[in-house]
Amino acid sequence: MRAVTPRESSKCHFTKQHTVSCGICTMFPSCMSILPRRNEPRPPRPGQTPVVLNVYDMYWTNWYTAGAGVGVFHSGVQVHGSEWAYGGHPYAFTGVFEITPRDERELGEQFRFRQSVHIGYTDFSEEEVRRLVTELGKQFRGDRYHLMNNNCNHFTSAFCLALCDKDIPAWVNRLAYVSSCVPFLQRCLPKEWLTPAALQQSLAVHSRSSSPITPQ
Prior knowledge:
Shape: globular
Helix content: 25-40%
Order of helices and strands: HEHEEEEHHHHHH
Strand order of the largest sheet: 4-3-2-1-5
Strand content: 15-25%
Radius of gyration: 25 Å
Distance between the termini: 114 Å
Low-confidence stretches: 6-38, 198-208
Number of helices: 8
Mean pLDDT: 74
Largest sheet: 5 strands, antiparallel
């Protein structure tokens, strides 16, 4: 048997260390090939259900925000064959609603399906998911909707964290984050886009201004 030289021994020890630690692999890219891939989703355990984020483009707002390098996206969470999302209305009850997964027609003509993102797996049964939706609806009421501060992506983030302890991708709600850092961006958008109350007031003003004057 050939004796191992000190240099070869050191090399073997270095390789063994890096199969369990990636502390300095950034300096040695070749080491990455022997490390397990951490980003690959693990297979579900028996009884678990996939949690999928469906993302849609909102063309009516992206026309204005594209120049700033951010988009306005709607998202919903698909689990147990249903997709759950959040929208605004002027009333003090839940704004969470259920649609057929990836059916942009149920959302409206200004929405276009963009992509699905696998988030993780959940142990919640369908009944437990519906109870969770009811509880989240107390926080995500229709009259509390705000395009920047409490929108559909804030809901899907909270929903995914509750279902599988994983958050949605940051780019989906980037405009809301940017607006919190750059307040003037929010002031550039029409107020009726931001909240359902502002939209209702705008529609009421428009209705009064366009209604014919009744002669006395």
